Amino acid sequence: MDWLDKLIADELKPYNLILNALDDRKNDEGLILISQKHLGEFTNIHPTTVGKKLKVLSELGSVEQVAPGKYKLLHNDKEHTPHYYIRMLIDLNIAGLVSLGDFVTQREIFGLEKPMLHRIDEYVRLVMMKLKAELE
């Protein structure tokens, strides 16, 4: 993991904690019976934040909510988390292939809806601010 991936991973730690907690508790069919409250207790993340992170993970194809308190872990890898999209957007931006805020091009590349692209764009800007602060 290079320094940029580490910076991104540090920023996205709640997503990884949630995915790992779900992975540790899944049955043979990949199903997990757990409330957001209990998931929050296991990860030390507020239940409201757990719900928001689960929604993002669901939109990116990592997790599916089968029923209230019942989830299916579909993927526990970077390619199905914000980390992948943030790193790709940074790399494409550095290469001059896409601009931050160019949601039309980003949608063509990533196939994500505009609200998710806004979220990814915000994370990229946050990571870049932190990177700038570290370099000063």
UniProtKB/TrEMBL annotation:
Domain of life: Bacteria
Protein name (record): Uncharacterized protein
